[in-house]
Design goal:
The protein has helices at 3-24, 87-100, 114-117, 119-128, 148-166, 183-191, 212-222, 242-251, 259-262; strands spanning 60-62, 76-83, 104-108, 131-135, 173-174, 196-197, 227-232, 255-256, 263-265. With 266 residues, the protein is α/β, with parallel strands linked by helices. Helix 5 runs parallel beside helix 6.
């Protein structure tokens, strides 16, 4: 018997054995049909965060006063996100944190409904320290143009909202709307526990509506080591750019940090 005939007999015997086995278990067997048992794949573990954790080591101790960048050498970058006009954008930033491991600081303008709408999603991230909340006043008033009473009212109403809603006050960090402050504003703020006015050196330029292309160009320009970059939770273009922002951060070996990750105030 030649080799081809032997192989044919072996194949026929395998088919008969398999179909007979299925028939013996009460299944209908079709002549010539080979049924392969279904293989169930093990659960796929979740992917690791796209962005690295903050650099190790204790935060840098600073004195009270204005900051525009993170002190010293390093690879950290503090993304700070202001306002919160849009619930959609606040929600997208929360998903961005969950999906990538991003760490950043929201400067909350407390009169906007976004913060109450997303309280239950945001609070666990705040409690875990991944997202920090700081004071950006109650209604985004120009503090430098107001009375001492008006300054205190704007900051204290936001402080109370943060405490009642998220269990934090945001101290010692505050950002005066439009970056406008003076010695009187800083003194009143310090009396309320806000001893560090946080400015920036780099912006996504999205306080108003801009194109996605321009926003990404700003990120390419300003995403640099030890920078404090300002963005806004106001308009949707940023929600369509997260992948590109992650690419820039990874390509430059940056680590996103909250202000508390990087700084400790003496």
């Amino acid at each position: 018997m030649d080799r081809r005939a032997v192989l044919s007999l072996l194949a026929a015997g395998t088919v008969a054995a398999l179909t007979g086995c299925h028939a013996a278990q009460g299944e209908s067997a079709v002549a010539g049909e080979v049924r392969i048992p279904e293989v169930v794949d093990p659960p796929i573990p979740p992917p690791p965060p796209l962005l690295p954790p903050p650099p190790g080591g204790p935060p840098t101790v600073i004195l009270p006063g204005v900051i525009t960048a993170l002190p010293g050498p390093g690879s950290a970058m503090a993304l700070t996100v202001d306002d919160g006009v849009s619930p959609e954008v606040v929600g997208a930033y929360i998903r961005f944190a969950r999906d990538t491991g991003a760490r950043f600081t929201f400067f909350v303008t407390a009169c906007y409904d976004s913060w109450s709408i997303h309280r239950d999603e945001l609070r666990p991230l705040v409690e875990a320290g991944q997202v920090q909340l700081a004071n950006h006043t109650w209604a985004h008033a120009d503090l430098a143009a107001g009375s001492e009473f008006a300054v205190a009212d704007e900051l204290s109403r936001c402080k109370m909202f943060l405490h009642n809603t998220f269990g934090v006050t945001g101290a010692p960090f505050y950002r005066p709307p439009f970056g406008r402050h003076n010695a009187t504003v800083d003194r009143v703020a310090a009396d309320l526990g806000y001893t560090v006015p946080v400015m920036w050196y780099g912006s996504l330029s999205d306080s108003g509506l801009i194109t996605e292309q321009y926003l990404v160009e700003c990120a390419h320009r300003y995403f640099n080591p030890q920078s404090i970059v300002i963005g806004h939770a106001n308009f949707p273009p940023v929600t369509r750019c997260y992948g590109q922002l992650v690419d820039i951060i990874r390509d430059r070996n940056l680590a996103l940090v909250t202000l508390d990750d990087a700084l400790s105030v003496a």
